[in-house]
Design a protein that fits this description.
The chain has about 170 residues and is of the alpha+beta class. The chain has two domains: about 1-65, Single Sheet (N-terminal domain of TfIIb); about 75-170. Helix content is about 45%, strand content about 20%. It has six helices and six strands, in the order αβββββααβααα. The strands form two sheets. Strands 1-2-3 form a three-stranded antiparallel beta sheet. Strands 5-4-6 form a three-stranded mixed beta sheet. Helix 2 packs across helix 3 (about 105-120) and helix 4 packs antiparallel against helix 5 (about 145-155). It is elongated and about 65 Å long. The chain binds zinc ion. Zinc ion binds near residues 33, 56 and 57.
Length: about 170
């Protein structure tokens, strides 16, 4: 149990608190050996998931690499400030992709990219409109139907003409 905890801290802390870390140093949480092999990598809602294997003791473990974004505030249209929420970002995007033939992995990857881009601005506060436009740009590249769905909620389409205008721009 203690080994697990140390492993967890070792894996979690550098990632959460070194925002511009490019190369991540990691030791085996079981034997502290420094040479690890990545056996699998995929996007997940928890961040980039990597299966790693220690080249010394052969034990395997999983890491989730996620950028800390909890301290960013979103400024809404009515000037209210709200803590950035990954969950809200996800639910809005997932709703747009409901029943669309798009791989979950692809959507998760997009969400991770959006989160990363927001973080990269280095700003503590970001307008909700900036985030909205960013999301729309990303969705548009993947699926037109999801894009129209998201845009109609986000841009608050008032009538069929708004919808037609958006369709023409596709
Ligand atoms: Zn090891």
């Amino acid at each position: 149990m203690r080994g697990h905890l140390i492993g967890f801290l070792r894996l979690t802390f550098p990632l959460r608190y070194c925002s511009r870390l490019i190369k991540i140093k990691m030791d085996c949480p079981y034997c502290s050996h420094k040479e690890l092999k990545v056996t699998d990598k995929r996007e997940s809602p928890e961040g980039i998931r990597r299966r790693r294997e220690c080249l010394k003791c052969g034990k395997r473990f999983t890491t989730y690499e996620k950028v800390a974004i909890e301290d960013i505030y979103v400024i809404k249209k009515d000037n209210r400030r709200e803590k950035f929420s990954r969950e809200k970002l996800e639910s809005g995007i997932n709703r747009a992709f409901e029943k669309r033939p798009v791989e979950k992995n692809k959507i998760d990857k997009m969400i991770n990219e959006i989160e990363e881009q927001i973080r990269k601005t280095g700003k503590k506060e970001i307008k909700s409109s900036v985030i909205g436009e960013l999301i729309m740009k990303k969705i548009k590249k993947i699926d037109n139907v999801a894009y129209i769905r998201f845009a109609s909620v986000y841009r608050d389409f008032q009538d069929i003409n708004d919808f037609k205008r958006e369709m023409r721009e596709l």
